[in-house]
Design brief:
Helices cover 33% and strands 17% of the residues. By secondary structure, the chain is of the alpha/beta class. Helix 5 (140-151) links the parallel strand 8 and strand 9. Residues 224-231 and 243-251 have low confidence and may be disordered.
Amino acid sequence: MDLWRLLGYSRSTFYSHKDSLALQDKDGEKTNLVNFCKSITPPCWLKPLLFNGDLQTAWTVVKGVDPLIYYKRMIFEAECPTYRGTFTVDFVVPPHTDTDPSLPPRTISLNDKELNHIGGDDHRPMLVTLHGLTGGSQEAYLRHLLVALHADGWEACVLNARGCAQSKITSDLFFNARATWDIRQFVQWLREKFPNRPLFAIGYSLGACILINAAGFFTAMATRVDLTYCQAERRKRSDAEGRSANGDPSFDPMRRKMAAETS
């Protein structure tokens, strides 16, 4: 083991498609997505005793720092009957003093007046967050990020997997890494209610799997993401399994519904 690793230095490695998405920086210089990510990623210096991701995740729980994030919850009914049931989204809001013992700490439900007037024409960036397995909006690892972004003027929310974050299970349909139905419906809803907001998303662990699967299935979610390699891999795997997964709406009931609405 080299000396730098003992002192906490960790080498960052970047993976991308060979033809990474072309970009232009604020000075007008041409670059691409992978080089842009390299340029904004600082050197990684870890605490020597927290030398891997598992220990770092555990430390966010035991070290006693509790990022204060306040939420208001909205319940969505699945529009596609194939994916029947409900799911919840917790929106980051300014601090409030209200409580609801049936929900996680600092979380209350949107009232009827707020639900009737939700939406806007502002241009603030919006982050959709997908948590890891059995997690939810209450997890410290995602609240650390949301605190920083909200303080910087971002809007943000957490899409809770069904049954997580003290949400009710209203059907026999649960979730897994290919459970893309809720995020796809929610992204469509956001685009209708906040048409001018640039949308961003981040997924942790299982949430990252759901996010990349959703982007691969629903190309309208991937307009700013280089998914050529991912889609090619999905096509090869689907062909190997004897299924049609890319470009054919008949593969997915929600895609059939979307194709009908846009035709």
